[in-house]
């Protein structure tokens, strides 16, 4: 109830039906919540019928014809060949390469794009595309609709996506979720730091580095994913519980 000076000088109906007035309310947070909600609804609605999918991450800056681009094409191709839909961020570079490989292999090629300050369209190899306004909504879609992540060389964006996934697995939010790093030369120093510093300093558990698989071979990446996804969920949970209790007991 509002009385006195707090009574507004117009009703909700008037404000809804009258076209007059400033539009800056459109950019206010309560309205944004609805837009965020709409983005979730659209994402869930468009992706719900996808077959099992794998998301491929990697640099937006990788040039066509480079070794990493070629690796992206090959892994997209290999994933599609065994029936996985391939999801990427829909941009250029490694994302485009993986979409290209998937499409050329006759698979389903998905791009979950993001609105950026400079204009950018979904790459030409995307067959099912959604453009998101919000990074965090898009990230939910990557995780919810894939069974694994494959991560090729990349920068901050790629590292962000990689470490989000590792954290979700480490904290048990997602269970059957292999993460495959492709590009041994590029990723080995990071793995060395994880084992040599994070583990030694006690920032992670001894079982945690095992969450990351490393290979240069697209077929090996696919094998790791298929094998891991065919393990019963219970087996994975038990292995992690065992590792945690061994750590607690110092064995
Ligand atoms: C050339 C340029 C900067 C284009 C930006 N265009 C982008 N389009 C779509 N997703 C992107 C883009 N930039 C970053 N990302 C996200 O972050 C990752 C790549 O970031 P980075 O280039 O590694 O750090 C991708 O897996 C993608 O999900």
UniProtKB/TrEMBL annotation:
The protein's annotated catalytic reaction(s) are: N(6)-(dimethylallyl)adenosine 5'-phosphate + H2O = N(6)-dimethylallyladenine + D-ribose 5-phosphate; 9-ribosyl-trans-zeatin 5'-phosphate + H2O = trans-zeatin + D-ribose 5-phosphate
One Gene Ontology term from the biological process aspect of the record: cytokinin biosynthetic process
- Which domain of life, per UniProt? Bacteria
Per the UniProt entry, the Enzyme Commission number(s) are 3.2.2.n1
| Molecular function via GO | hydrolase activity
In the record, which residues are listed under signal peptide? Answer: none
Pfam families tied to this protein:
Lysine_decarbox
Which terms in the GO cellular component ontology are assigned? cytosol
Which controlled-vocabulary keywords does the entry list?
Answer: Cytokinin biosynthesis, Hydrolase
Q: Which SUPFAM superfamilies match?
A: MCP/YpsA-like
The record's similarity note reads: Belongs to the LOG family.
| Protein name, entry field | Cytokinin riboside 5'-monophosphate phosphoribohydrolase
Q: Origin organism of this chain?
A: Planotetraspora thailandica
């Amino acid at each position: 109830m509002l009385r006195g000076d707090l009574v507004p000088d117009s009703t909700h109906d008037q404000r809804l039906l009258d076209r007059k007035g400033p539009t800056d309310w459109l950019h206010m947070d309560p309205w944004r919540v609805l837009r965020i909600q709409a983005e979730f609804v659209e994402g869930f609605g468009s992706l719900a019928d996808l077959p099992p999918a794998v998301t491929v991450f990697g640099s937006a800056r990788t040039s066509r014809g480079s070794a990493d681009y070629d690796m992206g094409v090959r892994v997209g191709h290999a994933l599609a060949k065994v029936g996985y839909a391939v999801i990427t961020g829909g941009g250029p570079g490694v994302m485009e390469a993986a979409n290209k490989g998937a499409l050329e292999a006759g698979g389903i090629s998905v791009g979950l794009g993001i609105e950026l300050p400079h204009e950018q369209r979904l790459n030409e190899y995307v067959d099912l595309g959604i453009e998101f306004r919000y990074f965090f909504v898009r990230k939910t879609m990557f995780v919810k609709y894939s069974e694994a992540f494959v991560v090729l060389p990349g920068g901050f964006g790629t590292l962000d996506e990689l470490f989000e996934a590792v954290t979700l697995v480490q904290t048990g939010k997602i269970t059957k979720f292999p993460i495959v790093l492709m590009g041994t030369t590029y990723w080995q120093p990071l793995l060395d730091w994880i084992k040599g510093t994070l583990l030694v300093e006690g920032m992670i558990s001894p079982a945690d580095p095992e969450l990351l698989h490393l290979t240069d071979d697209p077929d090996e990446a696919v094998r790791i994913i298929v094998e891991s996804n065919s393990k019963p969920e219970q087996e994975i949970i038990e292995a992690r519980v065992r590792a945690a209790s061994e750590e607690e007991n110092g064995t």
